[in-house]
Amino acid sequence: MRADSLYTFEFDSLFVDAVCLRMAGNDSAALEGFRRCYELNPGSAAVNYEIGSLKLQGGKEHADEGLRYMKRAVDNDPGNYYYLTILARLYYQYGKADDAVTVYNRILKQFPDRDEPIYDLALLYNGMGEYRKSNAMADKLLRRMGWSRQLFFLKARNFISMGDDKSVLKIMDDYIEDNPLDYSMWVYKGDVEMELGLMDAALSSFEKSMEISPGNGEALMSLCNYYDVQRNSRKVEEYLAKIFASKDVGFETKDKYMRAAVLYWRGDTAAASKMESSYKAMVEADRQNYLTHLAYARFLNMASRQDESIDELRTAIYLEPSCMDCWKLLLKGAIDKNDEKLASEVLSDAVDAIPDSPLFHFYKGTLAYFMQQPDSALESLLLADSLLVKNTESRTHIDSLDAAAMYSLLGEIYHNRGDEEKTLYYMGEALLYNPYDLVSMNNYAYYLAVYNRKLDDAEKLSFVTVKREPLNPTFLDTYAYIMMKRGDYKSAYFYIMQALEYDDKENPNAEILEHLGDIQYFMGQVQNAVSTWRKAKDSGSPNPKLDDKINSGQYVE
């Protein structure tokens, strides 16, 4: 057996292994394999190409090295059309336009019968601002192939960029002469004519498009814009109605026109009726699209027609069960109706439809908490927490404010259960998710004080809330409570009186009153403290230890 056949076998074996590693997604091992191949045969075009492409995947910092390997691939296999084309496109991609032009001209010489590099070079010249050269390449291709939409739009862009309006109009006429039934080109012609102020010609072009393809969406939209420029409101509304009823216009475009129509109808006494007619037309034109039902439901919701909105939302959800916005609006409808039963049903259905979304588990837990079902609330909230922690994709379903509210509620539930560690953990998590939220800051500071933990931190956090909102009685109360826990009773008394000053005089907060009694007790005003504690109880304080304070005349932690 000859030595060179052994060498070939080793190289081929390494190359095949490296290719398999790359196909398996193990790029680092594949690169090492191709490097070993390169050591055996640095003149292999295939090896240089593979190393170059892997290097280019590593980001801009490896671009120059990757391009060098790609050039070596071309140098080692100069007749390879694929390598040449890839190198030209990569040069342009990495901002080496002149090098790209050089390679494309080489391709044209080596492969004169190929059409693709001519078009690529025309696009390249257009991107470089060399519009005449771009048109020269386009004309070369035009003589070979005749008109195509791609060639037309490329030449049109070149002429528009050069400010040559007459040439734009001429090539449109040339194209339409060869393709008289291309209704969308008549629309484009009309748009350009309207842009140039040739209004009669533009209208004629739009009408010609409608003759070829009655009701086509492109012409309808251009005619709507045309009459808007002409300030013909009757015609604008006529074509708006046709756009919304058209099956040829997509929902996103209709939605854009609806937003414009809302502004257009602003101040019109019949605006609501016109909008509703438009939404109904959108639904009728595309009844299987959940987005049309959702859009109409939003309108009905804004019009305080909750029952009708709910019906449209149920249709939307039937068509697209994973529609987050549909479920949110349906829940809002139930809440607006003060229907707890409906809200509960909506949330149960929502978590069944989108089980990986923490948001609806959070809402379900919140509703259960306010319906005095703490066990159910805790179960739903912990499930929301687990989804939020384990699945990073689910975080797109819940924003930081909702996450902070969820963890605050978990903290409240664990406080009611007497679990100090979990209370502080979840209150801390709430602040972590929304570090600038004053409510989360206040809650965490308050519970640190309740449990006599990190009072320095509690004071700093609470001071921020008071500084930001000096008239907020809740924040003032928390700061006073922390001062009391630190033994600074004079400061505590000052801030608790400030809290009472800004609190509701007719319905004073029971917790603020209780804290006033606590501070009075530590200041030696026991009788005043007992009297204030009684006022707190009369105001509805839920604290079970309040009776012990009143009966014993002593502060109870």
The global form is extended
Radius of gyration: 36 Å
Question: Which sheet architecture does the biggest sheet show?
Answer: none
Helix content: over 70%
N-to-C span = 94 Å
Round the mean pLDDT to the nearest integer and report it. Answer: 87
Number of strands: 0
- List unreliable stretches of 5+ residues: 1-6
Strand fraction equals under 5%
Main structural class = mainly alpha
Counting DSSP H or I runs of 4 or more residues, the number of helices is 31
Secondary structure elements and pairings:
Blueprint: H1 3-23, H2 27-40, H3 45-56, H4 63-76, H5 81-93, H6 97-110, H7 116-128, H8 131-145, H9 149-162, H10 165-178, H11 183-195, H12 199-212, H13 217-229, H14 233-245, H15 251-264, H16 271-285, H17 290-302, H18 306-319, H19 324-336, H20 340-353, H21 358-370, H22 374-390, H23 400-416, H24 420-433, H25 438-450, H26 455-468, H27 473-485, H28 489-502, H29 510-522, H30 526-538, H31 546-552
Helix pairs in contact: 1-2, 2-3, 3-4, 4-5, 5-6, 6-7, 7-8, 7-9, 8-9, 9-10, 11-12, 11-13, 12-13, 13-14, 14-16, 15-16, 16-17, 17-18, 17-19, 18-19, 19-20, 20-21, 21-22, 22-23, 23-24, 24-25, 25-26, 25-27, 26-27, 27-28, 27-29, 28-29, 29-30, 30-31
